[in-house]
């Protein structure tokens, strides 16, 4: 039986699209206007439930940004940015690249809360949204001096700046800082002393690297700096991990841990006590993780200032607090 072969060819050469990239082609204004815009399509094109979306945007786009230090120095830091906006139920989507393009208009600024406020207002206007957010993540360097030898080295702090704004124009200014310290166990300390006193047996109390993740909301016009927040944590917890050490520094650190033993509950309350004295801080939340050297699990705690409609303290995922 003879079968007619299937004809896979195009009817004529004019119908066959070219697979060659034309590097000489330049788009005109008319051509750009003719391009389809699926994201801004009519609501009939929405897939799934026709409901509003709380936040949509782009996350983890990176670029070097400039920040001012407490001393007035300008430093440049690699920064990871997340920009999101709310989406009304009748809109299919947003122009994702517009979030990036707007931010890049400010890339040469020395970033401050005023800069973030300008960006958020532009997002509200250009993306026709009622709620916008911007988060900047970066590692901030502060010079730390050793305890006794007076050596100096850079301690890096994981920091997040978050700006949030609603259509009313009210802005939230949130700063998050991760403070890494050592926690010596009070129970282990007493048990070690008991072994020495009762049986003349030498033992070492256990301690572990620990982290306090401090999130604060600043009042409008606040001048509180990252350095100020680091000092508040250091004043509360005392036993920050060290950068440059000699033997006298290591000995001093052991003595410091002996002087400031603490459970995870103690650490949470100590930071609370320190932050609660600062009028420029409207609200705060402190999440603590002690990465136990005795146990195969960690000890954790969360504490908040406790104001109406403030931070909730429902911070359950402590895995990202691992140092």
Describe it for me?
- This protein is α+β, with helices and mostly antiparallel strands and 323 residues long.
- It has a single domain, classed as Urate Oxidase (Roll), CATH 3.10.270.10.
- It is 25% helix and 32% strand.
- It has 7 helices and 9 strands, in the order αββαβαβββαβαααββ.
- The protein has helices spanning 29-34, 96-104, 113-126, 186-199, 226-237, 247-259, 264-275; strands spanning 53-68, 74-87, 110-111, 131-145, 152-166, 171-184, 207-218, 281-290, 299-304.
- The protein has a 9-stranded mixed sheet.
- A hairpin with a 4-residue loop joins strand 5 and strand 6.
- Helix 2 packs antiparallel against helix 3 and helix 5 (226-237) packs across helix 7 (264-275).
- The radius of gyration is 28 Å and the shape is elongated.
- The mean pLDDT is 90.
Set out the fold topology.
Blueprint: H1 29-34, E1 53-68, E2 74-87, H2 96-104, E3 110-111, H3 113-126, E4 131-145, E5 152-166, E6 171-184, H4 186-199, E7 207-218, H5 226-237, H6 247-259, H7 264-275, E8 281-290, E9 299-304
Parallel strand pairs: 1-3
Antiparallel strand pairs: 1-2, 2-4, 4-5, 5-6, 6-7, 7-8, 8-9
Helix pairs in contact: 2-3, 5-7
The fourth-level CATH homologous superfamily is Urate Oxidase
Query: What is the fold-level CATH name, i.e. the topology?
Result: Urate Oxidase
Mean pLDDT score? 90
- β-strand number: 9
Judging from the principal axes of the Cα atoms, what is the shape? elongated
Q: How many H/I helices?
A: 7
CATH architecture: Roll
Report strand %: 25-35%
SSE order: HEEHEHEEEHEHHHEE
Look at the structure and give the CATH class: Alpha Beta
Q: Could you describe the largest sheet, including whether it forms a barrel?
A: 9 strands, mixed
Give the N-to-C terminal Cα separation.
74 Å
Counting helices, strands and paired strands, the structural category is alpha+beta
Low-confidence stretches: none
Strand order of the largest sheet: 3-1-2-4-5-6-7-8-9
Q: What is Rg?
A: 28 Å
User: Helix amount, in percent?
Assistant: 10-25%
**Domains, number:** 1
């Amino acid at each position: 039986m003879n079968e007619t072969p299937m004809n896979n060819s195009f009817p004529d050469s004019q119908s066959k699209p070219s697979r060659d990239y034309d590097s000489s082609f330049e788009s005109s204004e008319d051509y750009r206007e003719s391009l389809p815009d699926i994201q801004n399509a009519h609501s009939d094109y929405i897939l799934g439930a026709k409901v509003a979306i709380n936040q949509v945007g782009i996350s983890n786009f990176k670029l070097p940004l400039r920040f001012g230090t407490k001393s007035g120095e300008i430093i440049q830091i690699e920064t990871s940015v997340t920009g999101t906006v709310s989406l009304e139920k009748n809109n299919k989507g947003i122009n994702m690249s517009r979030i990036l393009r707007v931010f890049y208009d400010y890339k040469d600024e020395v970033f401050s809360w005023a800069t973030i406020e300008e960006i958020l207002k532009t997002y509200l206007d250009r993306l026709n949204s009622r709620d916008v957010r911007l988060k900047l993540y970066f590692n901030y360097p502060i010079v730390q001096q050793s305890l006794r030898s007076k050596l100096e080295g850079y301690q890096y702090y994981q920091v997040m700046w978050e700006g949030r704004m609603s259509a009313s124009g009210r802005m939230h200014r949130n700063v998050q800082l991760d403070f890494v310290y050592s926690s010596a166990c009070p129970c282990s300390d007493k048990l070690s002393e008991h072994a020495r006193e009762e049986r003349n047996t030498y033992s070492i109390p256990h301690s572990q690297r620990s982290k306090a993740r401090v999130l604060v909301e600043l009042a409008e016009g606040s001048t509180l700096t990252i350095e100020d927040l680091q000092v508040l944590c250091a004043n509360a917890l005392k036993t920050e991990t060290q950068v440059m050490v000699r033997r006298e520094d290591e000995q001093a650190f052991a003595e410091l841990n002996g002087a400031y033993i603490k459970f995870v509950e103690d650490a949470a309350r100590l930071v609370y006590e320190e932050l609660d004295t600062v009028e420029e801080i409207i609200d705060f939340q402190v999440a603590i993780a002690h990465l136990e050297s005795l146990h195969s699990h960690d000890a954790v705690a969360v504490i908040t200032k406790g104001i109406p409609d403030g931070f909730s303290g429902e911070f359950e995922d402590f895995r990202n607090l691992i140092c």
